[in-house]
């Protein structure tokens, strides 16, 4: 079991990290502003579910493989960058006004949720970050490391869920203002597209 002091310190650090600029919270902000609160919260659930994959990867040692293998790391980076470019294309070509709302309704809750899952698990930096971050709060003297890593991953997911949900809630409120004007909505779509392209380039060029 994790001591309460360690759990609270880890939770506080996780909240601060979730608030720091990064692909996930930028994605939540833009998606919520463009498509509304419900879609934003579904994406948040998807992103947090993706953290299960990264937590398990650290607990099982899979993240170390990506850290050591240049080819595996590069391949996952390219998949993630490609997915971001796909999102950029979709945002740039998204219809505005009533048509846009109909398009978003056409995307099922499951599809929106899986968009968040895909966004998270195709970012190898998350796996490498977890590999460096989670073990700092684990202690072999307290029991199996894998169990502690899974518990810490759960705490991080809770912190991310609360933080990203707050971002989604606030961004959706601001986005409603843009939805009243087709011109403003089109501008928001263009900005989102450019940001996704920038994130794709950053992910593709960043070193492991």
Question: Keywords, please?
Answer:
globular; 84% helix; 208 residues; mainly alpha
Number of strands: 0
Q: Oligomeric state of the chains?
A: single chain
Succession of helices and strands: HHHHHHHHHH
Q: Mean pLDDT, as a whole number?
A: 81
- What structural class do you assign from the helix and strand content? mainly alpha
Number of helices: 10
Brief write-up:
The chain is mostly helical and 208 residues long. Helices cover 84% and strands 0% of the residues. The chain is globular and about 60 Å long.
Structure description:
With 208 residues, the chain is mostly helical. It has one domain (24-205). 84% of the residues lie in helices and 0% in strands. The protein has helices at 4-19, 23-35, 37-60, 62-68, 70-92, 98-106, 109-121, 124-133, 145-179, 182-205. Helix 3 packs antiparallel against helix 9 (145-179). The longest helix has 35 residues, at 145-179. The chain is globular. The chain starts with a helix and ends with a helix. Residues 98-104 have low confidence and may be disordered.
């Amino acid at each position: 079991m994790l001591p309460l002091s360690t759990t609270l310190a880890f939770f506080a650090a996780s909240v601060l990290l979730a608030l720091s600029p990064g692909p996930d919270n930028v994605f939540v902000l833009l998606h919520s502003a463009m498509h509304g609160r419900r879609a934003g919260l579904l994406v948040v659930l998807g992103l947090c579910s993706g953290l299960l994959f990264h937590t398990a990867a650290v607990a099982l040692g899979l993240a170390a493989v990506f850290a050591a293998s240049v080819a595996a790391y590069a391949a996952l980076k390219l998949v993630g960058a490609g997915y971001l470019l796909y999102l950029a294309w979709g945002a740039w070509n998204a219809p505005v006004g009533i048509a846009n709302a109909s398009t978003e309704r056409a995307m099922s809750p499951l599809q929106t949720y899986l968009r968040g899952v895909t966004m998270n698990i195709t970012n190898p930096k998350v796996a490498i970050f977890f590999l460096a971050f989670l073990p700092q709060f684990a202690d072999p003297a307290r029991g199996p490391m894998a169990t502690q890593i899974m518990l810490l991953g759960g705490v991080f997911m809770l912190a991310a869920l609360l933080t990203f949900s707050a971002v989604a809630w606030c961004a959706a409120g601001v986005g409603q203002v843009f939805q009243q004007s087709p011109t403003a909505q089109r501008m928001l779509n263009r900005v989102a597209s450019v940001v996704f392209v920038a994130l794709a380039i950053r992910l593709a060029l960043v070193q492991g």
